[in-house]
Amino acid sequence: MVPAQVETIGLRVAFGSVVAVDLLDLAVQPGTAVALVGRNGAGKSTTLRVLAGVLPPTAGEVRIAGIDVARDPAAAKAQVGYCPDVGGLIPRATPWEHLALAAKLRGLRPGWQERATSLLDRFDLLGAANRITAGFSHGMGRRLSVVLAALHSPTVLLLDEPFDGVDPLGVEATLEVIAEARAAGAAVVVSTHLLALAVACCDEAVVLRGGRVVGAAPATQLAGPVGEQHYRSLLS
């Protein structure tokens, strides 16, 4: 069996007496996509922050592309492209400046500009490439965050609420980026409260409630009215 590209074993994250993620086991194979779905506060964003290496786990094991995140966080982060749920953008910087900084920090070779231009164009941001992001709408910020996550063609793509407030063109572009990442062998984890889009882009849906997994199934089983009803029953 092919080793998981993303793996957590007994992941636990606590903030004082509040347990945000409780004993989460997750495995995402190369070329596949898993959706984390659930209500606000279910632990979706906290899980992605741990996978991205921006939040340390309280307990458990986390591996990214076979790398133990606790032992070599820098090497693990190098494999990841991460779109956070909020923030992450520099208000006084332009999209092009964001991309140039990302390319420098990741040591991308000359020629990255061509991919950056293509992504900006796909997400309808090329015309705003030299505008500071302070004036961006929420949807524009979401689109730019996905562009930044995908720039270096990571082996692990983590997208936290990438569809939130995004117009149909941005949704379509995000779905294309996910499909291309999977075709290149990347593992993708998407957090979203939009069940229909989770079904559209992922192989499996993991339903979280109170930091625990309350259900996991092929995403297609949550499609349509019957799937929606089953999903709601897991959350109640």
Structure, described:
- The chain is of the alpha/beta class.
- It contains 8 helices and 10 strands.
- Strands 6-7-8-3-9-10 form a 6-stranded mixed β-sheet, with helices on both faces.
- The longest helix is centred in the C-terminal third of the chain and has 16 residues, at 168-183.
- 42% of the residues are buried.
List keywords for this structure.
236 residues; 4-stranded antiparallel beta sheet; alpha/beta; 6-stranded mixed beta sheet
Strand order of the largest sheet: 6-7-8-3-9-10
Number of strands: 10
* Alpha carbon gyration radius: 17 Å
The secondary structure category is alpha/beta
H-E order? EEEHEEHEHHHEHEHEEH
Give the % helix: 25-40%
| pLDDT < 50 runs, ≥5 residues | none
Largest sheet entry: 6 strands, mixed
Shape: globular
Strand portion, in percent?
25-35%
Number of helices: 8
Distance between the termini: 35 Å
| Average pLDDT rating | 93
